Amino acid sequence: MHLLMPVNQYSAVLGKHYPKQNHWVKMLAMMLALSVGLSFLFCPGCPIASEQFIVTFGYNFCYTTGLWLANGLPSDLLNRYVDWTQNPLRRFLVTVSTSLLASTLVILVVTTVFRVGYFHKSFWSISWQAFVVPLGITLIVSLFMHSRSFLLSWREVSVQAQRLEKENAQAQADSLRRQLDPHFLFNSLNALTSLVEENDPARATRFIRQLSQVYRYVLDSQDQEVVPLTEEIRFSDAYLFLQRTRLGEGVQVERHLPATAPLNHWQVPPLALQLLLENALKHNATSQRNPLRISITLDEVAATLTVRNTRHARRLPEGESTGLGLKNLQARYAFLTTRPVLIEASDAEFAVVLPLLELQ
User: Fold this and answer.
1) Are 349 and 343 within 8 A, CB to CB?
2) Which residues pair with 296 in a beta bridge?
3) pLDDT for 31-46, tens place per residue?
4) Helix residue ranges, H only, the chain
5) What is the pTM for the complete model shown?
6) Are 274 and 213 in contact (CB under 8 A)?
């Protein structure tokens, strides 16, 4: 999966402001009403049931409906194959040219059907003047609609990109704040004090080094959008060491990481894995008799990393959990890729599937 810029992620928004072809009944009703109005305009005084009025109405209806389709359908089709964000000027010119070509074909067909089929005139009697006014009107309307659609859509993309950038910044700031949370530091210092009191200098020294590594990683990664998966896993090892030192055998962790997996090839948002581990520890009770079991599984084919834990729900003190961690993580991923963060929950287990990203 490639790492996407926000404007590419929302390029599908461009073109959404064109008149849509999916409201057929509504649009046909509008064409019908417009054709009736034009018939009264071009055939004043004609009885509605007269042949002249009916022919005028049929001519106008074929023209309006045909030109509507000639200008709308090409835009819908081009939105699927030609990206506005790659070359806006080229897309604009292609759209207008296609609309004019389709409109010319509609004018030729409608004029031929009525002039040759109804009035029994020669096909070669059709002059270029019959195309001037309809094509002129089509060009003016087409330029207006395409320009309006492009500007409105581009503005919407810009607003969405700015919103996602703000959400991403807020999510990163929240992640940093969470890691420097006094609760984590307080619990870590209590564990360190216990090691000192137990006169275990080797474990105390390692604990201090791992604690230092955790905070160093947090500080180093706060300005990065993504980090190599290798670094994130190495950081999670340090984090889990601190937690297992404090909780003992109450936490059981299994890692299913294929030895041949190219971990440096994949990227994840910094502290994403740690957030899931922290949530598992925060929201579940741990004990040696009934330990909290956590598994970290890498799927090379699907390019995902799954963190799964058993559920032993515990009541949290008021204010300890804001419920924003996963939402912020999802917002950060939305800024980077179209692949969603999947959450799977049951009475026995809770799992989160993280997409692994690739840099272009």
Assistant:
1) no
2) 255, 307
3) 888 888 878 887 887 8
4) 6-9, 24-42, 51-81, 88-112, 129-179, 182-197, 201-221, 229-247, 272-283, 325-336
5) 0.54
6) no
